[in-house]
Task: inverse folding
């Protein structure tokens, strides 16, 4: 079945540091890949997505590239801000199936 | 603007009581989902529906039920609440097209079972 593995947190960075959160997946067919973000006390918001191999999703300075050869979808940002502190979830689905989530990575950015 | 709402936002109940959590979306989406979020487990799927009168079990469906009588609503019922069901519950919806797979989430319901 489909599954997602993402790096365990928590991750603590200083403001303006480079961020990478690793995500790898196992899936049948051609999944769509997502990163969702959850700010404290809120629901999940879509951060970015990619629907086919080599696509790059980007939003708010975050990027992730769909790598079929390494079954990965790592999240990156060149310079994090305190306001980026949140929990980040990698997820996938195939066809019309429900999303399968990783366990989430908590990011704390300190000034 | 289209949205997805959940009520109540917070609920405290006692073991053995029946509890219903509401989810309402104005996206006119056919697909609706219920997840629970627990520390160390991420989000796990409870039940989902692909349209009116359709319901399906997810990974952690024991002790929960849903019914879909219209497009907008998918209430989640805990038949006899247990302390293990203390969690944060999220509802989500999406289009049924295989091209658009993004799920949109509600703000969540925090449930405490004493």
Result:
């Amino acid at each position: 079945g489909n599954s997602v593995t993402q790096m365990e947190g928590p991750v603590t960075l200083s403001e303006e540091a480079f961020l990478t959160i690793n995500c790898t997946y196992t899936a049948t067919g051609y999944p769509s890949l997502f990163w969702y973000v959850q700010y404290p006390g809120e629901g999940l918001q879509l951060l970015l997505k990619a629907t086919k191999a080599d696509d790059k999703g980007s939003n708010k300075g975050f990027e992730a590239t769909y790598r079929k050869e390494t079954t990965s979808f790592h999240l990156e940002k060149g310079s994090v801000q305190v306001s980026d502190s949140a929990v980040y979830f990698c997820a996938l689905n195939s066809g019309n199936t429900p999303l399968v989530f990783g366990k989430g990575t908590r990011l704390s950015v300190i000034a | 603007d289209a949205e997805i709402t959940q009520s109540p936002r917070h609920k405290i109940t006692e073991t053995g009581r029946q509890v219903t959590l509401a989810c309402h979306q104005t996206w006119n989406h056919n697909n609706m989902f219920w997840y629970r979020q627990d520390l160390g487990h991420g989000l796990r799927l409870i039940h989902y529906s692909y349209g009116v009168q359709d319901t399906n079990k997810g990974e952690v469906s024991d002790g929960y039920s849903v019914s879909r009588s219209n497009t907008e609503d998918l209430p989640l019922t805990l038949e006899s609440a247990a302390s293990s069901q203390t969690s944060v519950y999220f509802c989500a919806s999406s289009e049924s097209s295989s091209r658009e797979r993004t799920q949109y989430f509600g703000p969540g319901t925090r449930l405490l079972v004493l």
